[in-house]
């Protein structure tokens, strides 16, 4: 009888933005599963998107998961026997495996242009078929392939997938056997035209080479499971056990999104949520303790963890319920002395004070001036109303437009530095033909809560990207928000802005 392999799970986030609570949720369940089975939990960075991946975002992932109390046995910062743990450092592996598939006729080079792909998909749609493109749709005659290759036209490497009708049976730890229609599975790109692998190839290769035994991931990956299963079969490898966890949802049951809920882990840290309370709340997302207790530690969760206790209904991420649970942790788990230590550690530490004082001291005449000057930096949601913006020049719609344009630009900002933020806002002000002083007026109120504050750019840097963006969203909502029709109009106008 073959000995069972030690359990190895992984979390594989992309360093392309703010660390997401959904990442922490998946990481928590992977960690608990591995610890409950005496196994290993691995952190792997999937940074093949070189245009969007940044070192700052990777560090934010490491910092936020560690702040929560999640720890990994192997990863880019701690090493391990299966490294390297960044996909960008494993590029040669993917190319070799793609070439193997090409040589074995399990993949093909595709020279189709974007325009041709659009025509092909439209044709399938008009014929009443799915828009999933098959090899027979994509493969060109040999002489045309030779011509395009000779001309140096770009190509991608796609995997061969079944043309015939039928279903692919995928076993899932929670859902049993899932039958997925092969007709919906396209000839997936494995290597992009720039030579970079897609998630699908890199994920399968890395999971195999790192001996991952169980893949616990969000249910949005269910439809990709046939492609992954097929790749394992092509390579002759054993497939890890799959477990698709339910997606976190907004109170209205829609998929959790930053437009309706704060999603950045660092936002909750800046708001003053306790990491153990947030982790506790994430543990309750579709899972429950045997005694149904609402408040429990990470150690309690690991000790009692059973993946079969996960409910497949979409768990609701409700900030009000999180706040209630956080309040319980504050009141029930801290003496006054301990709470004083937590407050000092959170906001009133020497590092924070030294970052604020160079800006506040210019406006201070007494020590008591410091608190009102800096209060917005240690506050969560500001007590603003529509009247807070009443004295601004211009129409409400123009103010909303400026805030929304800035929010989009700052959401795309990967380097949270004063000059970068200044350039973003200056570009928008110039495009809207608004004087910088008038353009910035609503930002002082939205971000600082007052028109009288030190430099708005310094304020944004001190406040950080997560809280700054959250306050801009709050201001837009306070001013009435944007309708669906209005949003499309704004998006079109925003797309026309200079870079």
UniProtKB/TrEMBL annotation:
Q: Show where the record puts the motif 'KMSKS' region.
A: 255-259
User: What EC designation does it have?
Assistant: 6.1.1.17
Q: Which residues bind ATP?
A: 258
Show the stretches that span the lipid bilayer. Answer: 439-463
What PROSITE patterns does the database record attribute to this sequence? Answer: AA_TRNA_LIGASE_I
For this UniProt entry, the molecular function terms from Gene Ontology, in alphabetical order, are:
glutamate-tRNA ligase activity
**Domain Aminoacyl-tRNA synthetase class I anticodon-binding: from-to ranges:** 338-476
Q: Where in the cell is it found?
A: Cytoplasm
The Glutamyl/glutaminyl-tRNA synthetase class Ib catalytic domain, residue ranges = 7-324
Top-level division of the source organism's lineage: Bacteria
What keywords does the record list, in alphabetical order?
A: Aminoacyl-tRNA synthetase, ATP-binding, Cytoplasm, Ligase, Membrane, Nucleotide-binding, Protein biosynthesis, Transmembrane, Transmembrane helix
Motif, 'HIGH' region: chain positions: 13-23
Chief localisation class: cytoplasm
What does the function comment of this entry state? Catalyzes the attachment of glutamate to tRNA(Glu) in a two-step reaction: glutamate is first activated by ATP to form Glu-AMP and then transferred to the acceptor end of tRNA(Glu).
Subunit (UniProt):
Monomer.
> What name does UniProt use for this protein?
Glutamate--tRNA ligase
Q: Which organism is it from?
A: Candidatus Litorirhabdus singularis
């Amino acid at each position: 009888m073959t000995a069972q392999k030690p359990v190895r799970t992984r979390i594989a986030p992309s360093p392309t933005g703010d660390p997401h609570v959904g990442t922490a949720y998946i990481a928590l369940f992977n960690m608990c599963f591995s610890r409950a089975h005496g196994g290993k939990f691995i952190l792997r960075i999937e940074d093949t998107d070189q245009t969007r991946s940044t070192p700052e975002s990777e560090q934010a992932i490491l910092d936020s998961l560690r702040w929560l109390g999640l720890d990994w046995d192997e990863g880019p910062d701690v090493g391990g026997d299966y490294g390297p743990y960044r996909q960008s450092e494993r590029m040669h592996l993917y190319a070799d495996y793609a070439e193997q598939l090409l040589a074995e006729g399990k993949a093909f080079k595709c020279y189709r242009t974007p325009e041709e792909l659009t025509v092909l998909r439209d044709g399938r749609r008009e014929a009443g078929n799915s828009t999933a493109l098959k090899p027979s749709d994509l493969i060109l005659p040999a002489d045309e392939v030779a011509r395009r290759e000779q001309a140096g036209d770009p190509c991608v490497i796609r995997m061969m997938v079944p043309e015939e009708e039928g279903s692919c049976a995928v076993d899932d730890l929670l859902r049993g056997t899932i039958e997925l229609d092969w007709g919906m599975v396209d000839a997936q790109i494995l290597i992009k035209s720039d030579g970079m692998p897609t998630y699908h190839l890199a994920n399968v290769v890395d999971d195999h080479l790192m001996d991952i035994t169980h893949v616990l991931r969000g249910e949005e990956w269910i439809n990709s499971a046939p492609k992954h299963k097929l790749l394992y079969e092509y390579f002759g490898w054993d497939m890890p056990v799959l477990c698709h966890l339910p997606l976190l949802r907004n109170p209205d049951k829609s998929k959790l999104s930053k437009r309706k809920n704060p999603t950045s882990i660092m936002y909750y840290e800046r708001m003053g949520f306790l990491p153990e309370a947030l982790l506790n709340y994430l543990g309750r997302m579709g899972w429950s303790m045997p005694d149904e207790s609402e408040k429990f530690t990470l150690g309690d969760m690991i000790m009692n963890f059973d993946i079969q206790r996960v409910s497949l209904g979409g768990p609701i991420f409700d900030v009000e319920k999180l706040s209630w649970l956080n309040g319980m942790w504050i009141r029930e788990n801290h003496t006054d002395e301990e709470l004083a230590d937590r407050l000092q550690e959170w906001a009133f530490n020497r590092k924070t004070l030294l970052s604020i004082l160079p800006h506040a001291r210019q406006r201070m005449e007494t020590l008591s001036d410091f608190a009102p000057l800096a209060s917005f930096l240690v506050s969560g949601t500001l007590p603003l109303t529509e009247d807070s913006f009443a004295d601004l020049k211009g129409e409400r719609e123009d103010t909303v437009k400026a805030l929304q344009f800035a929010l989009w630009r700052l959401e795309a900002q990967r380097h949270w530095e004063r000059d970068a933020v200044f350039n973003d806002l200056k570009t928008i002000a110039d495009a809207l033909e608004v004087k910088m002083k008038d353009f910035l007026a609503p930002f002082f109120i939205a971000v600082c809560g007052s028109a009288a504050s030190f430099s708005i750019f310094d304020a944004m840097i001190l406040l950080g990207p997560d809280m700054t963006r959250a306050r801009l969203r709050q201001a837009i909502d306070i001013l009435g928000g944007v309708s669906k029709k209005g949003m499309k109009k704004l998006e079109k106008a925003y797309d026309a802005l200079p870079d």
